[in-house]
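Re: weekly structure request thread

Next one in the queue (332 aa):
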Amino acid sequence: NNTPTKVPPYYLYNCNHNIEKATKMYAETQKWRKVNKIWKVHARPHPFFHEIKKAYPHYLHGYSKQGHPIVYEQPGRMNLKQLFRETECTVEDMVHHFTFFQEFAQNVVCFRENVRSKIDLSLQQQGKEDLVGYDIGTMVVLDIKGISPTFLSTDVLKYLKENGDINNNYYPMNVKRACIANIPFWLAGSYSYANRFLPESVAVSMMSSSKSAAEGGLRDFVDDDQIPKEYGGSSPYKLGEHPLEIELCKIGAEAAQRNSEEEEEDEEEEEDVMVGVSDIEEGIVQSPNEPENHQKEGQGGEENFGLQQRGGMNISNDESSNHSTFLEEPLL
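Done, posted below.
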C-alpha cells in the first residue's frame, strides 16, 4: 500500500489549499513530533514546570464562544531573565514546557466530548464541515499590563522566536484569536510587541485599556461566566483555580517528580515493540497493537482501546483522565 497519509484539512487551510505545500508541512510535523518525542511529552520529565509557571504567568481558564479553551498570559509579570540567570533552566526547557502546555490544551482538552461537540457545532455554523472532528486550538488573552522592554534579554528573545517558529510550523491554526488587554500608552495601537508572542496568522483584537477586559471587548468572543472576575467577568473560579488549570498543574507536578533514569527505562522497553515510523506512515506495516480497522486522526471510537488518538497522542475519553498515554508510534 503506497497511498500517502491523508493530510489533515487544517494543514490545507493553513497553506491556502496548496496540496504540495500542506503535504510537506504535515510530513515535517510528523518528523518533528517523533524526533522530539512530542507524542509522549506528558510522560517525560519536566523538572522546571513550577519555576516556569511562576516566571511566566499563564493560565487556562474557561472556553470561548466557539468552544476553544482560553489561555490568559501575563508577560508584564514575567521574570524569565531571573529564571535563566538563577536556575539551570534553559531555552530548551522553556520550549519543552511550551509543547507540554500545548499538547494538554489542544490534544487533550479539545478532544473531550463536551468540548469537541461545541467546537464542531461552531464549525458547522460557519460552513466549515471539512474541519469537523479535526479543528483544535486555543484563544489567548494577552495581558500586557506592566510590560517593559527591560524584561527582554537574549535568552528571552531566543525563546520567543523558537516559540513562534514551533507555532507556525507545527501547530497550524492553533491560536484562534488573541485579545490584547491593559495596553500601556507607549504601546497603544501597536501590534509589534504582540507579534513576538503569537503566530503570524492570528486575528488580534486590541482592547481598551480604560475598561475591564470584559467591557473592553472580551465579551464579543467569550461568555461572561467564562471570564474570570479579575478581568471583569462572572466566572465562579479565580484566575489560576479553574479546573483545567488545576488539572494541568497536577500533570506538571507529576512530570516535575519524574527523573531522566525513569525515562531511559521506558525507552528501553519501547524499543522492543517499536516499528519504523516511515514504514507505518507509508502503510507498509501496522503500528504495534493497532487493529486492522484502527482509525487515525481523532476519528477513532471505543474500538481503539477506549482511547481517542489525535496528533500521535492517545487521549482518554474519560473526563477524569489527566494526561495522554503511549500506545503506539506517532503518526502526527
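The chain has ten helices and seven strands. The first strand starts at residue 58 and ends at 63.
Next request, please.
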